[in-house]
Amino acid sequence: MDYHQLSCEKVLEAALSRAADEQCPPKLAEALRYSVFPGGARVRPQLCLAVAGANLGSDPMLASSAGAAIELLHCASLVHDDLPCFDNADERRGKQSVHTRFDERIAILTGDALIVSAFDTLAWAGSMAKFPERLASVTTIVARSVGAPLGIAAGQAWESEPVVDVSLYHKSKTGALFIAASAAGAASAGADPAPWQLLGEKIGEAYQVADDIKDATGDRDALGKPVNVDQRLNRPSAVREFGLKGAADYLKRLLEEGLDSIPPCPGRDGLQDLVREQARRFIPKDGDRQAA
I need a labelling partner for 142 at 20 to 30 A (CA). Which of 20, 49, 114, 200 fits? Predict the structure, then answer.
């Protein structure tokens, strides 16, 4: 099975078909689809599938469902992150944010429903997985990425603290889902997920540092979302902590550390090449609307 050719899109479509069916309130159903399709670069599920493939995983349904669940959590986090009580952003991926397109109440419920849909997706996969005994480990990994103490909810909560450890903030807010992607990919393949956490941690923090640089230097029209948000909201960022050059140097170091951290596995060289290729997509540059 060539995991590099697999896509989570069919699993995401199935998840939304279950959640946004004819019984769902129409506005909520529309907002759910609006939040997930068309998606961004889908870098988290791609990482999950790539790690599974590098470990010669033989359960593509479980790997694809884990990747899709993580993507649903990511989409939920974007909906909530844009809310007036957080970033108050009116644009995401070049279109109106959910609370702007619909309203704040629908946006909150959309994020909540997407979180539930992520775990429904894992439960749905359990009945079709070749190795259902791996599902408990995968589910635990995904669950820890969304809550406390080091999940995306905790990452968002750091923005309400008077003193913030930027590295810990990044590890929770952005790194958590990358850690889940690499660890769940390994677990779905029957490999020990623990050695794979560092890859997700480094790539996730690099992704956030790149986003901080884009926020400080990017163009709203090119990125498809507001810029200078960190400065406006007095929010912690790598640029504010290290300066622009320091943040750029830190980004390069994180990427190299991530590549070096990949554990020995049959597909290690190919995975390193894939990570390098993906990194080129999120390193700050003009015209990238698909970063998130």
Answer: 20
Percent of the chain with pLDDT over 90: 70
User: For the chain, what are the domain ranges?
Assistant: 3-278
Class of domain 3-278: mainly alpha
DSSP string, 62-123: HHHHHHHHHHHHHHHHHHHHTSTTTT--SEETTEE-HHHHS-HHHHHHHHHHHHHHHHHHHH
Query: Which pLDDT belongs to residue 230?
Result: 84
Q: Whole-model pTM?
A: 0.90
Q: Name which of 212, 178, 185 is nearest 283 in CA terms.
A: 212
User: What span, in angstroms and rounded, lies between the C-alpha atoms of 290 and 89?
Assistant: 17
The mean-pLDDT minimum among 33-42, 191-200, 260-269 falls in 33-42
How many helices (H) does the chain have, and how many strands (E)?
Answer: 15, 2
Q: For residue 164, what are the CA distances in angstroms to 104, 160, 204?
A: 28, 9, 18
Write the single-letter amino acid at 80.
Answer: H
